[in-house]
């Protein structure tokens, strides 16, 4: 569970492994490896791991919010980098 959040930019996520649920503005759908999810700017969203393995994904923001090469291995790392 990444926790509900909203961004001022578009976001594209690609599921690398695992299974989960995407919640975009209250609408739920199942996600799994090799799926892509587009989250338009301003959309409240959350991604929840529903499987037995880690849900691994990568994300791209447009325009970019992070410096090139930035990698957050966990939600805690991402929050620490953002000052939460």
Q: Can you offer a commentary on this structure?
A:
There is one protein chain. The chain has a single domain (10-82), classed as Jelly Rolls. Helices cover 10% and strands 43% of the residues. The protein is built from one helix and six strands.
Largest sheet: 3 strands, antiparallel
Write down the CATH class: Mainly Beta
User: How do the strands of the widest beta sheet line up side by side?
Assistant: 4-1-6
Overall SS class: mainly beta
The CATH topology label is: Jelly Rolls
Secondary-structure topology with pairs:
Elements: E1 10-17, E2 19-24, E3 27-32, E4 36-39, E5 45-49, E6 56-62, H1 75-82
Antiparallel strand pairs: 1-4, 1-6, 2-3, 2-5
Concise account of the structure shown:
The protein has 84 residues and is mainly beta.
Keywords:
single chain, 84 residues, mainly beta, Jelly Rolls, 3-stranded antiparallel β-sheet, 1 helix, 6 strands, globular
């Amino acid at each position: 569970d990444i926790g509900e959040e909203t961004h001022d930019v578009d976001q594209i996520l690609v599921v690398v492994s695992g299974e989960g649920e995407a919640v975009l503005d209250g609408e739920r759908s199942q996600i799994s490896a090799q799926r892509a999810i587009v989250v338009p700017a301003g959309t409240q969203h959350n991604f929840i791991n529903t499987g037995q393995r880690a849900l691994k994904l990568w994300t791209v923001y447009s325009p970019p919010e992070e410096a090139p090469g930035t990698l957050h291995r966990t939600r805690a790392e991402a929050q620490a980098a953002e000052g939460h």
